[in-house]
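Appendix B, Record 12. Input sequence as logged:
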Amino acid sequence: MTSASAADLAAVTQLLGRAPEGDFTVAVRRPTGEIVVIENAPLLRSGRPMPTRYWLVDSELRHAVSQLEAAGGVRQAEREVDPIALDHAHQQAALDRAALLDLSSSAPQPSGGIAGTRTGVKCLHAHLATYLADGNDPVGKWTADKLEAVDISVQVLVVTHD
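Logged structural output:
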């Protein structure tokens, strides 16, 4: 994984309120260039596993998704999203992350799928980030549709994978 530019590192540090603990690249930007989603390395610089591959860092979208979660969005998504499609997305996320790892290493390895979980819905933020970055997340699509229904646009974002 290539390292983020100094400008992107500074922007993500400001968005998170702290320096990131691992390497990342920018996966999705707004057309104006602001960072929306980062793709994390599977291991932090300390060697600890990083379960969240795609991380939603955009302040506006994070706030909107937090409101959706607070209104029961996680449980609603679990009821409404096809569980087979969700299981497939978790499995694919785990395979994609594993492809970035040295599996012969004895170091701890990240496990699970989206947001480090193997089944169900853990975090709408991580699901939306995954959907925006690679399009393979039915919960992320569900979340995007819910945001679009209240006039929060996510379809105009630019996938970059800098």
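Residues 29 and 158 are 5 Å apart (CA to CA).
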